[in-house]
Amino acid sequence: MTASNTPRDESTYRPGGPPPRGAHPESLLDGNLDSTAQLMNRITSQLGSQLSLVSLNGTRRPAPPALVLVAHGSRDPRTLATVRTLVERVRELRPQLPVHLGHIELNEPLLSDTLAALPAGDAVLVPLLLGRGYHVKQDIPEAVAAAPHLRARVAAPLGPHPLLVETLYARLVEAGWRTRAGEAARRASGVVLAAAGSRDPDSAVDTRRTAHLLAERLGVPVVPAYASAASPTVPAAVRALTTRGRHRIAVASYFTAPGRFATQCAEAAPWIAAEPLGDHPAMARLVLHRYDQAVAASGTVTERALTPA
Q1: Fewer CB under 10 Å: which end of the chain, C or N?
Q2: Is the pTM of this model over 0.90?
Q3: Picking from 1-5, 52-56, 140-144, which range would have the lowest pLDDT averaged per residue?
């Protein structure tokens, strides 16, 4: 066997091999420690996932119901990217839980295809929707009915819930909302809670409830407004706050992900516009909270995660 004439790359270092030329011993040690820590974290996560499926007497626990996140779908590529990141956050919080994604329309995989591909058994569908409306009451139940091999339960939509309010608050702060504004600034401030809108009156009730909770959190008036199918619009809500002497008006984006409606509402902001709820860590916790509620209501025997939601 002849030796290769290719010179050895001195910039790379293989554990157990000679150090690269000019490398500082402490930097090599730090690199090895980082790699070891990452490896141990992966081993611990995998071991925890396997142990969570075994009871104290050594018998295997029933597998948890599959979690299917149900997104609306959008032609905006940012929406799909955001939803996929949220799915990964959920998986990180609950490693042993089978997590799937399905869309009502516009993106793949479609919900019908996701459900058809699942093995027979239990499943919980968590709508990535912020209130009750046609999709929650009609589209999702119809998709479940078309998958008779599943014992499926539809969880409540994400809103209203205090975790959504905390996410809205965090997004406003990121956009420039002052957390320690004086009394004069609060008297001049207001927020428009911009939502997609629905003809279903229950959806408006849910949005108003979130607006009320956000107003309590901020200490300023919060007016719900809609991009379509309901009133007032965002510009109309801005005018209503202006007539009440509120001139520092922010728009809180009550959308699960970026998209056309969220962009239109943000453009109507006279001061600051917050980003959509997106993949904020509280959103992943809320998804698992809705999943756990549905599991408890169905009486399905399962184990909670080693890392609680």
Answers
A1: N
A2: no
A3: 1-5
